[in-house]
Amino acid sequence: MSTITPAIKTLADLLNRLGGVPLDRIRFQPSIGRATVQDVIDIQRHEGKLCELVDGVLLEKVMGFVQSALACFMIEALRAFVVPRNLGIVTGPDGTVELMAGLVRIPDVAYIHWDRLPGRRYPTAPVPQLAPNLAVEVLSQSNTPGEMDVKRQDYFTAGVQLVWEIDPSARTMAVYTSATNMSTLTAADTLDGGPVLSGFTLPLRNLFAELDRHG
Fold first, then answer.
1. Is residue 96 a contact partner of residue 44, using CB atoms and an 8 Å limit?
2. What's the pTM?
3. Distance CA 212, CA 99 (A)
4. What whole-number percentage of the chain has pLDDT above 90?
5. CA 58 – CA 28 distance, rounded (Å)
6. d(CA 93, CA 109)
7. Which stretch of 6-20, 42-56, 113-127, 164-178 has the lowest confidence by average pLDDT?
8. Which pLDDT value is given to residue 19?
9. CA-based diameter of the chain, in Å?
10. What is the CA radius of gyration of the chain?
11. What residues does 89 pair with on adjacent strands?
């Protein structure tokens, strides 16, 4: 049975729903509108590819070398704050979650407070049903503005409280406290965790200096 929404009648409608992502990221099998969470799991196991799931459609996740390095930096910075305080867990670019029924997203970095985890323990499901408190996205060339708009809306609708979008090219970070409330920080600014991660700070010059390191 198709899970695609009734409002999507044409491929143009579908592409608009997905945010205008490049066509080579849209999986044609399973057929459009019929993909499931199990397909996400199977493709990762058998092909080693990460896919998000939106309205029964699989979207391959693409992440470049620079994006991976910045995600690692953010994971280290967040873990250095979260773990000593035992606030919850931090996941990386393959931390696949089912935000809502049939909606699978893969933030590049995420923080989940223990209160959002059943029994306040690590989930055992390959794609757990949960919404992170914080989702971090490191923009790649294949990420369209429309895709990020859609993804932010999905995050906040599901209960994500804070979204950070890192733009390596511009060396900026967009901080969203809702799908529409945004402030832009530069390397001259210091990021803080707000009420989601009270007390967390990170001078962004340290993050973007990672791009200038050399041997």
1. yes
2. 0.94
3. 35
4. 92
5. 8
6. 6
7. 6-20
8. 94
9. 55
10. 17
11. 112
